[in-house]
What we know:
By secondary structure, this protein is an alpha/beta fold. 38% of the residues lie in helices and 19% in strands.
Amino acid sequence: MSQTSDIEILVLYYSRSGATARMARHVARGIEEVKHCSARVRTVPPVSATCEAVAADIPADGPPYATLEDLRECQGLALGSPTRFGNMAAPLKYFLDQSSGLWLAGALAGKPAGVFTSTGTQHGGQETTLLSMIIPLLHHGMLITGIPYTEPALSETTSGGTPYGASHVAGTQGNNPLTDHERTLCHALGRRLARTALALVRGIKE
Ligand SMILES: Cc1cc2nc3c(=O)[nH]c(=O)nc-3n(C[C@H](O)[C@H](O)[C@H](O)COP(=O)(O)O)c2cc1C
């Protein structure tokens, strides 16, 4: 956490071909628009069906791999995954499946959380993926922020963007840039998480 930040939000994502990673950067920007708040960006390694395949400890590029301490230390969570058959990607689910110690300790209970996803196609399961990501976070007792319709982009978008979380239609080749609306809603998700975490932490202290 930087010296001047009271609040750190973990932006935790998996991305194989870069679309969810691009969203993560915009969510982080939204977080850092809020005074006293910063983003801690982390990813997770791929999982392999080959038992012997072991990923390097440090990714070749991009942010470091997340540890459970990242989850424990942060005051809020933005969780991002590509849509895989209408569901969260296995590497992210695998990471969350290791968090039962945090669940037993109630370490995430009461912290705000939001979700984001990228799909190949417009109607390929964004909402189902976002809801699948919310379920384990509810088990952890996290407070789901979503995106409110007071954000005009939510009503105006003709691509991604849902009240359940931010989303992006990357296209079947995966190379669509984020639309202005999609980007705006990533920022909105980050800002809302940061503001909520700040209000909760300050409220508890007082
Ligand atoms: C195994 C697999 C399953 C997928 N399932 C879906 C799907 O159900 N709906 C969809 O629209 N796109 C699906 N896709 C496409 C990805 O969601 C899409 O390319 C996404 O933008 C990838 O994000 P990334 O660039 O962060 O890896 C799938 C891709 C893979 C590899």
